[in-house]
Specification:
about 250 residues; alpha/beta; Stationary-phase Survival Protein Sure Homolog, Chain: A; 9-stranded mixed beta sheet; 6 helices; SurE; 5'-nucleotidase SurE; metal-binding; SurE-like_Pase/nucleotidase
Amino acid sequence: MPRVLITNDDGYLAPGIRALAPAIAELGYDVLVVAPLLDESGVGSARAGMVGRPIRTVSDEENGVTYVGIEGTPAGAVTLAVLGAFGPVPDLVLSGINRGLNIGDSIFHSGTVAAALTASGYGTSAVAVSIDSEDPRHWPTAAAVAAEALGWVESEPAGTVLTINVPDRPLDQLAGVRHASLAPLKRSRLIGTTGPGGEPMIALEPPRPNPIPGTDEALLAEGFVTVTPIVGIREVADDDAATALAKRLTR
C-alpha cells in the first residue's frame, strides 16, 4: 500500500490528526505522521527558521500510530518528509482534519491547505480536509470522507490537490458531496478592528447572510461536503510584462 504522510496545522496532539491517522492506518496504508509541535494555524506555506538548522522533534504512540511533532510548520513537515528526512518518501499527503472550515480565497493563508500545495510542488498528490466547527463532535465523518478522497487522488495525475470541507454531522446526515467554487475574499468574515488598548487587530465576524450559490461557503451551509480541486503557484504564459519592462529600461 502507498505510504501516506499525515500532517496538520493544529499541532501533532490535536484531536483531528489523532482521529484521522488511525482511520487511514486501518485501511492498510503505511502511515507517517509529522506535524507541528504547536498550533501553526494561518501560517500558510511558511518555513521560516527551518532552513539551515537542526529541527527539534518529539514523538509518542497512540492506537498503534507514531506521531512525530516538529518545531516548525505544516509546509516544513511536508518538505522534510518528501526530502526523505523520515525514511521512505511518502506517495501521498493528507492534511487535517483541521478544526474549523477552510473556505474561499482566504485558504491562501491556511497552513492545512498550504501543506497540500507544498506536496503538489514536489509532484505528490494531496488532500486537505477541514471540518465545519470550532468544537467538532463528528471527527469520524471527516475521517471517512478523507479516506475516500485519498483513494481517489491515488489514481489521479501526480500533483493533484483537493481541498475539502465537511459538515460537523453524522455521515448519514450529510446532504451529499458537491464540487464548489471558492467564495471571493470579499465574503471573508475577517475584519480590522482595535483591541482593548487601541491596538490594531484582526477579528472574526459571525457568518454573513446570503452566500453566493455554488460556492464552498453556500454549499457547506446547506450540509454538503465541498470539494475544490486547486493548484499552487503557476506562471502565466504571457511575456508582455517582460517586454514592457525591457522597453522602459532602455528608453
